[in-house]
Specification:
By secondary structure, the chain is of the alpha/beta class. The protein contains eleven helices and seven strands. Helix 3 runs parallel beside helix 5, helix 8 runs antiparallel to helix 9 and helix 9 packs across helix 10. It starts with a strand and ends with a helix.
Length: about 500
Amino acid sequence: MNKLFVIHYYPIDYFPPVMNLIDSLGEKVEIRVSTLQKSNSLDAYGNKKAKIYRRFKENKKRSSLFVLVQYIFFSLFTLYQLIRQKPDAVLYYESISAFPAYLYKRFVGHKVKLCIHYHEYMTPAEYCRPGMRLSKLNHSLETSYLYHVATWVSQTNQYRREFFMNVEPQLSECVCHILPNYPPASWFRKRKLHANEIVKCVYVGSLSLTDTYVLEFCQWIAKQHGIEWEQKGTHEEHLDVYNFKKKERKKEVQELEQEKEYLTAENEELTAQIAEFRADIQILKDDKEQAIREKQEAEQRAEDAEKEVKSLEERRDVLQPIMDNASKEIKEYGMIKTFLPEAGTFERAVPYRENKIKPLFIKMKNQIAALAGKVVELNKTVENWKNKYQKSVEKCDNIQKQLDDVRKENGKLSNDNQRLQEISDRYDRVVRILGTEVVEDVVQQDIKEQKELEEQRRMEQMPKGSVLKQLEWATQKSQIENQQRKKNKTKYKGLEI
């Protein structure tokens, strides 16, 4: 093997085992490395005998879309370098770096030797965690193709190798290897230690006794000094850690208390507003029903008035021909001269007057008197009907005005009802978000606190009267204050850690 191409997506500056591998193999083979450029300002790792491509810069604060686009460009650039360099072997670290190796092995370099190494063992459940979509996609490419064509797959210790082979049974033992994460050789002290010299160690990393070798290291140190390690089976925390957690929990409790007070005050305000709005809605509903009833009554009165006016108009139409006939008869009687009987030949004036004129005048007098009486009666009837008609018209106009007022009031009540309906919808939304039980508990709590406040106000006022009543009041007040102090002590006692 003359050419080795290493693919490590994350900056190799953070991974000393990768730098150690490059330093160890740099004198034997030609090495090319594709990785990201680190984001901090510290000196970047370099090796004169290895070519390191840092085409893209690491950025942890960008969006998921930016990371995806950067990963695609990184994969295409790495694929281009693979095609250009034509290495004898390709080594990639972790599943996140598998995609360019997959493209090259599957479609270009079928004969290239594929090597895979994992810094940490990841279970299938860990691939499904949030933020692991790219690793999960690349792992699917590994299980479907890369593991079948790989010549080397390594884990850092025996336990991880066994876990890995249990999950991937298609891999044989000759393919799965163990490659510990050795630190660089420059880290080791070259001078010999004196037999009595104390070795000082500083551990940096996650503090755990299950997935690290801290326990084994401590046991080895104890064995070197002849101390028998006693396994208690407990994980008691250091006092400093305990005090720190206690301090943090107190802060969290204080914040939760403040948030609780704020939410309680807000819920009380909302409850009071909801009660007011419900009362206003009920009042407006009653006003609306009353307005609807008044509107119906006004419409009924208007309808009755229209019927009465129509009846008067019909009666007026009936009386009109009679009045016309009376006027016609009066006009005819006004032409009395044309209807006087003529005197006969040789008829004397006295017989003519007594026999013809006088009966005619008596008849005319009776008819005129009768017609005059009818005219007076008709005039009175007409005046009465005119007065009734005028009153009905005025009554109808008043009813119409009342109807218009009722309609305006009804429109105003409809607007108020719509506004209160929106407030009711907001209340329903609050109930839907917080839950019926929460809102009901807040309401009952507010009622209870209101009663307690009233009782407290009543108790704070010293009763007037005899000295015995005042002493009894002072005793009850003292008992209530003592109960409140005990309650507060009990309340905050449970919050101590």
